[in-house]
Amino acid sequence: MKYVVGVADMAVSGDAGDEIVTHALGSCIGIAVHDPVAHVGGIVHYMLPLSSVDAAKAQANPFMFGDTGIPLLFERAYRLGAQKDRLKVFMAGGAQVFETKDIFDIGKRNIVIARKLFWKNNVMIAAEHVGGHIPRTLFLRVGSGETWITSHGQRIDLS
Amino acid sequence: MIKIETIVAAADRLGAFPQTAARLAAVVADSDSTVDDVVETVRYDQGLTADILKYANSAAAASARAIETVRDAVIRLGGGRILARIIGRYVKKDMMRPLAVYGYNEQDLWRHSVAAAVAAEALGAIASPRAGGLSFTAALLHDIGKLLLGRMAPREDMEKVWALVSEPESGVDCAQAEQRVLGFSHADAGAAVIAAWGLPEPLGRAIRNHHAAAILSADPITDVVCVANVAARSIGEGIGSEGMAVAVDSASAERCGLSRERFEKLCAATAGRLSEVLAAYEG
User: Fold this and answer.
1) Which residue, A135, A46, A44, is CA-closest to B271?
2) Tell me, what's the ipTM?
């Protein structure tokens, strides 16, 4: 089965036949996790770095924010049998507009919050494709752990 | 080489522009206009008044009580939101269609445009924009030029546009690339269409300059449209082939009273309201 993860959304699967994809990554971030032994994988697509911006919205939809969405992705993966020491983590997105200052630079802050969370929790990022200005789509095959992005019709493998 | 006049002429294919909208836009643009002026402009169009009442009572309007008269609806919504509503209904069908040239699937351009209009509205509650109700319509229509250019421009020309945008570190956005290849951008085309529809000049000016990396003279409506366009993209609406390769003047945000944190609040508020506003256009 193919799961499409929307903006401010998440999907986790323990079915080796599943594929998970999230489109339209601009400044948003897609985090993919995969446990090659348990054959568990998931993707979260968050929009903004910190839930403190709007606590009510974070309560209603924690996947809108990096600091609430990323921990939930890991929790849901653990529930399906994934283990932290086996998890491979991939990150894509975080593009930015052309501007002279950094008022609009949500993409960069989205990248920073993920790196901070991973660093604090001793999680290594296996591969990433972030920054710049391009649109990205992130794919994960739950069985094989194959993870890749596409942008402007080109495929770039992360796994 | 395609000419901008050809693009403007093609706007006729969208159907007759609603004249009530042109009259209402003039009322909204007039800072001395009153609620009665708005009521007087819309009251003789029965289909429109029924729609305004329906909209005023929808979840998108968030009214605490039932709205039963056109006057109450105008007070509740304001002329700017009513104008955006009329024009939104006019362009919706065409904006819903896929636009492969820009990497837009079905609904993408429509959702991006409505998200920008919602952001323009939400900006008033979060910061201190100096623009009034016209800015909602300007945000809604800011990419109207794409709708026409995407259908009319020769494929080989648009391939050259994307080749320029895709060059690593080119620093060229879609509008700048269109300017180089075609001699005018979707923003120029949009402004020309706005003029042909008889809408007030400040609307066209904001649409023409919404990709300007540095806006030479501060213009309140242009500032709101620049911010609203980026907010819509930042919530994932209208990413298409451009991604975030959009030139924007950071000073626009500062002139609207936005800080980084307030811009993030604006994005959260826009994302929160978008589904309600889209739903209000159904049926």
Assistant:
1) A46
2) 0.94
